[in-house]
Amino acid sequence: MPKLDSRRRITLPENLCKQAGLGPGDELACFLINDRITVTKAAPHDSRGHNLSSQVLAVYEHADRVFHSHEAAAEWMTSPQRGLGMHTPSDLLTSDEGIQQVDDLLGRIEHGDYS
Fold it and tell me: What pTM did the predictor assign?
């Protein structure tokens, strides 16, 4: 279980960070979704110079609605998906195109199309 140190830092186990694709020096973004804090790599800027973090947050919120649970959404976001060419959704959240692909797949799942 992560612990808070005297400098108010949280240390996570290395295997958990590797599983989440996080490493030393990564810039991180944190989002509060359903009373839980989600930590992910900070999103880069899109071609217009806008930070993608708000779009990424919207996708995570969409996943929470589709799967009715933060835990189920987090599991789906970090598992390879056939509809994304066996990429994990979280790996695709670094570009406008990837964000759109993940959101489109969530929309299809939401409407019963599991292809």
Answer: 0.60
| Inter-residue contact 55 to 61 (CB < 8 Å) | no
- CA–CA dist 105, 115 (Å, integer): 9
- Measure the CA–CA gap between 30 and 41, rounded to whole angstroms: 9
Tokens, residue 5: 């140190």
* Residue pLDDT, tens place only, 73-108: 989 998 999 999 999 998 898 788 999 999 999 999
The DSSP secondary-structure symbol of 87 reads: B
Give the C-alpha distances (Å, rounded to integers) separating 26 from 51, 69, 72, 113. Answer: 16, 27, 25, 35
Going from N- to C-terminal start, the domains of the chain cover 3-110
DSSP, collapsed to helix, strand or coil, labels residue 13 as coil
CA distances for 70 relative to 36, 37, 45, angstroms: 8, 10, 26
Q: How far is Cα 57 from Cα 77, in angstroms, rounded to an integer?
A: 12
CB within 8 A of 13, min separation 6: which ones?
Answer: 2
